[in-house]
Structure formats: structure tokens, C-alpha cells
Write a structure and sequence with these properties.
heterodimer, A: 115 residues, 7-stranded mixed β-sheet, B: 112 residues, mainly beta, Immunoglobulin-like, 6-stranded mixed β-sheet, 4-stranded antiparallel β-sheet, 53% strand
Chain lengths: 115, 112
């Protein structure tokens, strides 16, 4: 049982390059989330999804796009990377039947550096 | 919109002493409150949650949290700290929507 798996674990990009971060969960969770973690700022929500084919903006969506074509996968895209997007990115998922009771299950993160 | 605040960046305690990590919240409806722990180079792990009912919630690894509605607080506690409890702790809240918002985190250091 892998839980939430993020790929890649590390990545270095040059300004203006694009990339996609992949998140996969095997728990049949309906909800999925992308957060970024920066020192002293905790985790900030980028985008989230409450089901296949649906996405919504979080606190800091600018510069990012997401897609949820399959229930188990949630992709985060950076079309034109900027140094301000240097961060650690976490994917999480939760079970909708518990509603707001449901805690989040996290992946181990992707460390992205934009030079 | 919902939010949480963790007023302390760092908490230091001696092993065997009680520990408290503070959290205050702001929500428009009934709060759904959570505590998570993060070890180095890992994702966050769920510790405990408050939904309704008893104001003292018990969770994993001997941790508990006290919900206080009048003070809008949800402080994390443990009667006797271990060196292995040293980590980054996050308070989080879920309000009307399905997204979860996190505090800035508190680094707990337990010294032998």
C-alpha cells in the first residue's frame, strides 16, 4: 500500500522552463490537494480537486495549473517557472465520505529549485 | 475565510517535562481542527482532530489537544516529552469548504 506518491523527488529548472509534477494515490480518495511549503509560511494551498474532472483554486494559484483526468492522479503544472516558485511541493488526498472530518494523507514532497 | 495562527516559531522543552504547542483559529462556522507532525524530508502525518464532543481530544503517540471555544484555541499537549517528539508541528482548520488551511508551524525541540 503506497499511499500518496509524488514524482519527481527533486528537480532543478531554469527560469522560463516548464514542468509537471505527478501525484498518485491508491486509497480511492475523492479529494486531492497541492500545497507548497516555504520557511516561516507553513503550507499554502495552490489548487485542489473534489473529484475526477474538477479542480478549484486555493490561496496561491497564480503561475500553476492542475488537471484531474483520473481519480487517482492529480497533476500540477508550471508553464513558465520563476525563482519565486522555488519551494517544496506536497500533494495530499482525503476521503470524501467522512466529509470535513477526514484528515489529509500526504506524499513525501517534491523539492523544486528554479534558477 | 478560515485561518489558524501558531504564535510560537520554536518551543524548547526538556525530556520528561510536559509540552504545549499553541494554536488559535478563526472560522465562520463550526471548526474542524487538526494537528499534524512533520519529520525531516517527509510529508505531514496526522496526529489528531477535533470535530464535536469532548474538548480534550486524544491522538497518536500520546499527544492530546484541548479545544477552547471561548478562546478560539486548540493547543497540542503531551504530559511527558520524548527526544523523538522533536519535529515540526502544524495546526490546521477546515471550515465550510473542503480545503484545509495550515498554520506556519512550530518547531519543537526536546532536549535530553
Amino acid at each position: 500500500n503506497a499511499g500518496v506518491t509524488q514524482t519527481p523527488k527533486f528537480r532543478v529548472l531554469k527560469t522560463g522552463q516548464s514542468m509537471t509534477l505527478l501525484c498518485a494515490q491508491d486509497m480511492n480518495h475523492e479529494y486531492m490537494y497541492w500545497y507548497r511549503q516555504d520557511p516561516g509560511m507553513g503550507l499554502r494551498l495552490i489548487h485542489y480537486s473534489v473529484g475526477e474532472g474538477t479542480t478549484a483554486k486555493g490561496e496561491v494559484p497564480d503561475g500553476y495549473n492542475v488537471s484531474r483526468l483520473k481519480k487517482q492522479n492529480f497533476l500540477l503544472g508550471l508553464e513558465s517557472a520563476a525563482p519565486s516558485q522555488t519551494s517544496v511541493y506536497f500533494c495530499a488526498s482525503s476521503y470524501s465520505r467522512e466529509g470535513r472530518n477526514s484528515p489529509l494523507h500526504f506524499g513525501n514532497g517534491t523539492r523544486l529549485t528554479v534558477t | 475565510a478560515q485561518s489558524v495562527a501558531q504564535p510560537e516559531d520554536q518551543v524548547n522543552v526538556a525530556e520528561g517535562n510536559p509540552l504545549t504547542v499553541k494554536c488559535t483559529y478563526s472560522v465562520s462556522g463550526n471548526p474542524y481542527l487538526f494537528w499534524y507532525v512533520q519529520y525531516p524530508n517527509r510529508g505531514l502525518q496526522f496526529l489528531l482532530k477535533y470535530i464535536t464532543g469532548d474538548n480534550l481530544v486524544k491522538g497518536s503517540y500520546g499527544f492530546e489537544a484541548e479545544f477552547n471555544k471561548s478562546q478560539t484555541s486548540f493547543h497540542l499537549k503531551k504530559p511527558s516529552a520524548l527526544v523523538s517528539d522533536s519535529a515540526l508541528y502544524f495546526c490546521a482548520v477546515r471550515d465550510i469548504g473542503n480545503d484545509m488551511r495550515f498554520g506556519a508551524g512550530t518547531r519543537l525541540t526536546v532536549k535530553p
